[in-house]
Each structure stands twice: as C-alpha cells, then as structure tokens.
Amino acid sequence: MKIYFATSNPWKYREIKEKFNNAGLDLGRINTQLLELQDVTNEEVALISARDAFKKFKKPLFVEDSGIYIKALKGFPGLYSSFIFKAIGLKGILKLMENKKNRQAEFISVIVYKDSKQEKVFKGICRGSITNKIRGRGGFGFDPIFVPKGYNTTFAENYAIKEKISHRVKSVNKLIKWLKNGKQKQKSKRSK
Ligand code: ITT
After folding, report:
1. Residue 81 Cα, ligand 1 centroid: separation in angstroms?
2. Where exactly are the structural domains of the chain?
3. 11, 13, 145, 182: most buried, per Cβ within 10 A?
4. Is there a catalytic annotation at residue 65?
5. Cα angle vertex 29, ends 27, 30, to 5°?
C-alpha cells in the first residue's frame, strides 16, 4: 500500500524517500502547509487551556494566555514568552535587539471564559516599544523592557500606568463588562 509523507519541505521528502526506496517501499508526497504548534495563536492556546481546566474542575472559570510580540524579531517570543523569559531572560532579548532600529512591540492578552453553557474569548492589546536596557523593578516578565506607546517610562518603572492601560486590563475589562451584561440579561429574562 502506498503511503504519503505530508510536508512542505522537499529536502525532508528527498531524504526520507531515498530510505523508503532502499527498503523497497513506495512513498508519495502530499505537498502541504501543515498546522504546526508554532502557528497556533494565543486564542487557540487559551481555548485549549480553558477546556482542559473546565473538564478537570467543572466550575465556571477563565484562563488568560499572554505574550509579547516584537516586530523586528517577526513576532518572537510571542506564544513562547514564558519559556523564552526563563531561557534567555531580558538580557537575551536585548541582545537579540542590539542594533535593531525598529523597536516596536505589543503585548497580547487573551482571556477565555468557560462554563457548562458557553465559551467566550476576550482580547486586549497594548502597543509600545522595547528599551535598550533594563529599566525599573516593578511588575514581572518583560515589564522592565517595555515602554507603552505615548509614555517614556517602562511598565516596571511606572506600574500605575500599567494598571490603567495594559493588554490585561483591556481583556479583563471586556470580560467584566460581559459578565455584568450577562447578569442583567438573566435578570430581565426572569422578570418577563
Ligand atoms: P499561566 O499559568 O496563567 O499560564 P504564565 O506566566 O505561564 O501563567 P503565559 O503562558 O500566558 O502565562 O505566559 C505569558 C508570559 O508572557 C509571561 O510569563 C511573561 O513572561 C510574558 N508576559 C505576559 N504578560 C506580561 C506582562 O503584563 N508583563 C510582562 N510580561 C508579560
């Protein structure tokens, strides 16, 4: 029976095809762009986490998945923010950003709420730029190297600003608004 290697990479196909030929096996190729973990978005990650948590805990809950996307690094570290922060830290990011003129970056926060009836996604984005050095002691993660647009202090230098304008403030505000509206709707349904 002929089987197929689904790959967008002709080199990989050639290397494996040869092994199949030598073994007397028939191999075909499906030339396709595969869904890979690296293409997954914060939304998809948060949905998977929320479904998994709900399955385990069976309580109305939400999860939040976030990350920082740096333009000059084609969106890196993005989905891998937590891992990269632990692996190379702020110094590692600043090293990658050495000599980069375009310092634009954005934080993304995605909240997924889930209960037995519904699943809802809320997103918040905060645009800004990456500093040349580590500045400030407040906050966590990438806060000491991120200056939000319209300001000149990092989130770590001015945490009060972060509490007003961050990606997370935006996503959670949407969640809260929705929860409150939901309650209002339920009330009005009952009173009918
Ligand atoms: P969970 O258990 O909720 O998943 P986590 O920290 O692992 O916690 P994520 O997987 O969403 O969360 O990773 C997000 C990473 O992105 C986080 O660990 C930071 O390194 C970075 N990050 C996200 N929001 C940030 C913020 O507001 N300030 C600084 N860094 C942030």
Report:
1. 7
2. 3-191
3. 145
4. yes
5. 140
Atom nearest to 85 CA in ligand 1? 20
Choose one of 37, 48, 82, 135 to mutate for the ligand 1 pocket test, by most ligand atoms within 8 angstroms of C-beta. 82
Please tell us whether the domain made up of 3-191 is placed in CATH 3.20.20.70: no
Residue with tokens 């989905």: 79
| 29 Cα to the center of ligand 1, angstroms | 39
Residue 137 makes CB contacts below 8 A (sequence gap 6+) with: 144, 156
Is this prediction's pTM over 0.70? yes
Distance CA 152, CA 148 (A): 8
pLDDT, tens digit, for every residue of 64-115? 999 999 999 999 999 999 999 999 999 999 999 999 999 999 999 999 999 9
